[in-house]
Model the fold of this input.
Amino acid sequence: MWYLKARMESRIPARELVKQKGQLKDDVVAIKVDGRIVDLHTPVPADATFEVIHATDKDGIQVIRHSTAHVMADAVQRLFPGTKVTIGPAIEDGFYYDFDKPGGGFSDEDLATIEKAMLDVIAKNTPFRREVVSRNEALALFEKMNETFKVEIIRSIPENEEISLYKHGTPGDDEWVDVCEGPHVPSTGFLRAVKLTSVAGAYWRGDERNPMLQRIYGTAFPSKEALEEHLKLIEEAKQRDHRKLGKELDLFFFDQVAPAMPFFLPRGAYVYNRLVDYVRNLYVDYGYEEVITPQAFDPKLFRTSGHLGNYNENMYRLWTEDLLEEGAVDPKVGVAKHVQEASFALKPMNCPSHCVIFGARKRSYRELPWRVADFGRLHRYERGGVVHGLSRVRSFCQDDAHIFCTQDQVAEEIEKFLKMFYGIYKAFALTKIDIRLATRPEKRIGSDDLWDMSERALQEGLERAGLPFEISKGEGAFYGPKLEFHVQDALKRSWQLGTMQYDPNLPERFDLAYTGEDGKDHRPVMLHRAVFGTFERFLSVYLEHCGGNFPAWLAPTQAIVLTVSDKSEAYGRSVLEELRSKGLRAEGDFSGDKLGAKIRNARTYRYPYMLIVGPKDAEAGSVSVRSRDAGELGAMPRAEFVAKLLAESASPR
RNA sequence: GCUGGCGUAGCUCAAUCGGUAGAGCACCUGUUUUGUAAACAGGCGGUUAGGGGUUCAAGUCCCCUCGCUAGCUCCA
Done:
């Protein structure tokens, strides 16, 4: 590490350096030197320039959380002897620590007990102490403690790196030690607000072939107030959970008869269809053509495409009575094998169909780029533990399209796609988008040369557009690298929505060709792309983004007429009829409820407008408008409201 | 798929140590005629996810299956 390069005599503990400069205040937890966060225990060059990090700084909070993880591990090992420690980093909203606990997991009661023990450790306010040891010393220490996971970690630390131990507690009494890079707060008393939140399984080193450890999640803040604030935000986020909103707003539901396959109710179907319309309209502008393709296919198709073999475990297969009989005829084959080989498959993707269409006749270079769109319903068998509301389902529809083009056209097509993509996301006020370039996975088809070229093409596209991105190594599809566009849900889980994938392999496998200017056959390139990704997932993210408050153009019901009493029903119905005759989506509440109750009901359904009508309005030919977003707007002539709502009903372009 | 947790009326949730399944909302029927966030009364509604076991007795304890859920792994 860099500080090893400094001469020994010129190093002093960071605490001393900060003190010399007169900056050692009570809330200083670390310093930043050369962009690196170093705690006060760590030696730094005596002449280093630094920036102090306070407990309340973003970096400071991370130091607090990592230290809290240590205190938790200390408490856990004291309460549950025999439990081994592994790793415990600070994360986005808190920290976790993974344990190997004999005899199974932790209960909620255990969490409360652990939290209490942590408070005792914190109350003692013992300093964290940093100690540098040799590799052999570290190994000997943790081998003696039978901390097999730590031993494995120490062995994996590169030879040239320093190994440090962090201790807290009273030596010879309740001292606790961990091999750790740091950084840590000066003493346990710096941990003022901690809370353990949940427990879950996690594989050692994130690999499902490894044993499962017990992970405890928690969070910590520099003050009780900040912790309370955080917990409040989580509560509010839960209110916006799309699964809750879906129920409340009668948009969709699930039933055990079709696990993880949504039933869209009339109101949900309305929104869904408007999203589809919206994309269809844009396709006119961007030069796409739509096709309709089959749902189930002879498995031959998916052998050609490579799905059988690379995507097997995600596919639904279909059998028929005839198929069983055929299988029974030849005892050498057997029913199971015959069904496995010959049963039709529900499509999990549209690309093979589009290859079939492209290859169905001679194609000219003049046709390229050919952008072919498909709103086909797709089915993918997702493993039990991964499905999640509308975000991860087994039956869905993508705003899917494939672009067949020449190598030379790729750059422009990527550019056009990005333009379309950002235009759409802007229309939905989604601005926090993370882009990742997912590169070749282990399980893949095609030569490395093709992969090199494909990955380069996508990367250049992003660079030309000046978009920041991260690389997700090995995360590409089996047929090509991907650009992934990720957006977070209300609970800060990140979901991939849009995608663009460069695919040189499927045209090869389907032996696709177009006739070039030179009269010879050439292989086209294929781009897979989707802006929303799937309508299901997009809807889940968007629902949470707008909190169920759909804009007027998208709202299943734009306005509801509320009568003050029966006396105004006739007038109310005439208002309703007028709205509907103008193509507006309106409802009426002519029930015996009092006005207050009607308003309350209408609010929970989040209708953009309530039109309150009573004798005064009937007299004046007006409606009293209450806007969901802007509050009471007062009485206005019927025609004025109609014009206003019509203006708001246009979908963005 | 793995590790926890959960599954009671359409929805949100009660039910003490294993001892008669209950409330609010919604729905239906009346009464009330109401001007900006819940009028009142009555009624309907349940093989306690499904199956098996222990027990005199199971919503409650045990086992299996299904589903949901928090994470992990995997993915749009």
User: Anything to note?
Assistant: Chain A has four domains: 2-54, 58-237, 263-292+360-367+374-546, 559-648. Residues 32 and 51 of chain A are 5 Å apart (CA to CA).
